[in-house]
Amino acid sequence: MLKKIMLVIAVVVLSVGVGGAGRSERGQIPWKDPAPIASNDAEEKILDVLADMYLNQRRGMMNVQPEDGRVLRLLAEAVGAKHIVEIGTSNGYSGIWFCLALRTTGGKLTTYEIDARRASLARKNFKRAGVDHIVTLIEGDAHKEITKLKEPIDILFLDADKAGYIDYLNKLLPLVRPGGLILAHNTTNVRGPMEDYIKAVTTNPKLETKFIHKHDQGIGITLKKR
Ligand SMILES: C[S@@+](CC[C@H](N)C(=O)[O-])C[C@H]1O[C@@H](n2cnc3c(N)ncnc32)[C@H](O)[C@@H]1O
After folding, report:
1. Is the dihedral of CA 214, 68, 222, 95 positive or negative?
2. How far apart are CA 22 and CA 37, in angstroms?
3. In testing the pocket of ligand 1, which one of 159, 172, 186, 217 has its CB within 8 Å of the most ligand atoms?
4. pTM for this predicted structure
5. Across 40-63, average pLDDT
6. Is residue 221 within 6 Å of ligand 1 at its C-beta?
7. What is the mean pLDDT of the chain?
8. Any ligand 1 atom below 6 A from CB of 118
9. Domains in the chain, please, with CATH?
């Protein structure tokens, strides 16, 4: 009996140790707030993939910062997003942050990428994070491709060509549901080319906009009022 108990303890200790490898990699990320803690194995796996992407793949990928990723996940889960549209997939980093939320809300991500190499990397990353079944990656020029969208959008995330934000907004605002969000990345560090977008989301009485993470790259959070 004692042997059996010892065996069970050994198995538990070993399995915690194996899980801990990912956690130690996550520990290398310069979180500004206490690091996220997984509540189950699926979440743990996704956070480990995100950590690996941040530590080993981010060069040239123009990814959002980990702290921005947390905000994307938090907002998506809070609004119970069923459909998120992302413009600018890159290698899938921000998309996988959204998927942390979408796997619990029962939602899906439609994401657009013009660059074939980054799109191919993204497909691999979605797969290894175990979220590929909830992601549709559309390869091509989003300005053209988004005109085929017909379904309501809970969150629209803009993170591609900055001068194009206004065109994405004009084309997709009608599909954003009342109570839905439009999130714009780089509202601090690449503000110039998106001034027309900033004006549009701050002067329309049907929208409420707040800018956060202003000390960093910045995110514009716009609510389409009910
Ligand atoms: C800032 S990166 C996106 C980063 C990504 N959201 C993340 O945080 O992981 C911008 C991406 O938008 C893509 N892009 C630029 N113009 C585009 C367009 N017209 N249609 C689709 N993708 C575009 C670029 O190739 C690039 O990979």
Report:
1. positive
2. 12
3. 159
4. 0.91
5. 96
6. no
7. 91
8. yes
9. 66-224 (3.40.50.150)
